[in-house]
């Protein structure tokens, strides 16, 4: 039902945040995106990944153009327009889940196994990370994780209803034990992010799942995160064309194209020795051979 809102993004959002873009080629495009997308910049050098460092404090009184923001239950700010375009609960993310499984299948990397994909709050990601015994870093927020352990996860089961002043009231969550007989029990992704960012994180985590399910174990961390970033980047690339869907309003398609370019640029220029260097190394190998050949190489190098 809410799926129809995913592609609808108020173009004013494009002007929101410029501080993150000064060092990128987007400086000239005046492209900037959601608070949620830009809550941080650099990913940490940890496994299971897609972490962002919390950067500038997001104060309501400093918001550009006097726009109104809502605070999500876990303390993140989101502008009202993004609130409508964001993927807010586990139900809403399922079409994207299917889409990304099809994307992998289209690359001859079909993921046969079924596992949960749950949207969760920041705190739930942190807890899951602790249970997976992955070290966390101070000031780092995780955006997605691929779980191998059976554990209880509290997920966002229903987008928060909007109360007075369009502020969300509460959040409907439910706890469940994620269990699986395969190497992946669930993928968790932070709720409330724009569809394109959610999809990129999901593609990245899905690649971790693919590797585990296909016996790629004890891989070099740089190569593993690198290939996962490559898949995230490839999915974004596929959205460049999807975004030109004529059924979308032109300005929305324009916004999405800019967001795709922005996210791709972030991946390509990421200064992290794991995610950034890993992407560049693996992407170079993919470009000079193929994805399948690169996977063979990664197994060999592992
Ligand atoms: Zn990762």
Mean pLDDT: 74
How many helical stretches? 8
Lateral arrangement of strands in the main beta sheet: 5-10-7
Which overall shape is indicated by the principal axes computed on the Cα atoms?
Answer: globular
| Distinct ligand kinds | zinc ion
Q: Please state roughly what percent of the residues sit in beta strands, choosing from under 5%, 5-15%, 15-25%, 25-35%, 35-45% or over 45%.
A: 5-15%
- Approximate helicity band: 25-40%
Please identify the structural class as seen in this structure: alpha+beta
What's the end-to-end separation, in Å?
43 Å
SSE topology string: EEEHEHEHEEEEEEHHHHH
Outline the low-pLDDT stretches.
1-64
Task: Note down, in words, how this protein is organized.
Helix 4 packs across helix 5 (about 220-240), helix 5 packs antiparallel against helix 6 (about 250-270) and helix 5 crosses helix 7 (about 275-290). The chain is α+β, with helices and mostly antiparallel strands and about 300 residues long. The protein has a 3-stranded mixed sheet. It has 8 helices and 11 strands. Zinc ion (ZN) binds near residues 48, 49, 50, 208 and 228.
Which key phrases capture this entry?
302 residues, alpha+beta, three-stranded mixed β-sheet, two-stranded antiparallel sheet, 8 helices, 39% helix, 15% strand, globular, disordered N terminus, binds zinc ion, DA1-like, transmembrane helix
């Amino acid at each position: 039902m809410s799926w129809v809102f995913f592609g609808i993004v108020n173009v004013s959002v494009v002007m929101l945040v410029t501080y993150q873009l000064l060092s990128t080629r987007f400086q000239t495009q005046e492209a900037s995106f959601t608070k949620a997308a830009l809550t941080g910049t650099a990913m940490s050098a940890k496994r299971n990944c897609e972490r962002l460092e919390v950067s500038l404090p997001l104060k309501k009184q400093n918001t550009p153009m006097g726009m109104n923001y809502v605070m999500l239950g876990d303390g993140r700010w989101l502008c009202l327009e993004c609130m409508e375009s964001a993927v807010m609960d586990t139900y809403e993310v399922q079409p994207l889940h299917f889409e990304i499984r099809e994307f992998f299948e289209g690359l001859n990397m079909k993921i046969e196994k079924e596992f949960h994909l749950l949207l969760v709050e920041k705190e739930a990601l942190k807890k899951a990370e602790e249970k997976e015994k992955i070290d966390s870093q101070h000031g780092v927020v995780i955006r997605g994780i691929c779980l191998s352990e059976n554990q209880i996860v509290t997920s966002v089961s229903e987008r928060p209803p909007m109360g007075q002043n369009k502020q969300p009231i509460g959040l409907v969550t439910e706890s469940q034990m994620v269990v699986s007989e395969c190497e992946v029990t669930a993928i968790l992704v932070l709720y409330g992010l724009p569809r394109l960012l959610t999809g990129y994180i999901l593609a990245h985590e899905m690649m971790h799942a693919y590797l585990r399910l296909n016996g790629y174990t004890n891989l070099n961390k740089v190569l593993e995160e690198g290939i996962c970033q490559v898949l995230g980047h490839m999915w974004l690339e596929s959205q460049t064309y999807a975004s030109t869907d004529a059924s979308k309003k032109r300005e929305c398609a324009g916004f999405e194209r800019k967001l795709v370019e922005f996210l791709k640029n972030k991946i390509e220029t990421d200064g992290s020795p794991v995610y950034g260097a890993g992407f560049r190394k693996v992407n170079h190998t993919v470009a000079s051979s193929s994805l399948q050949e690169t996977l063979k190489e990664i197994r060999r190098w592992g």
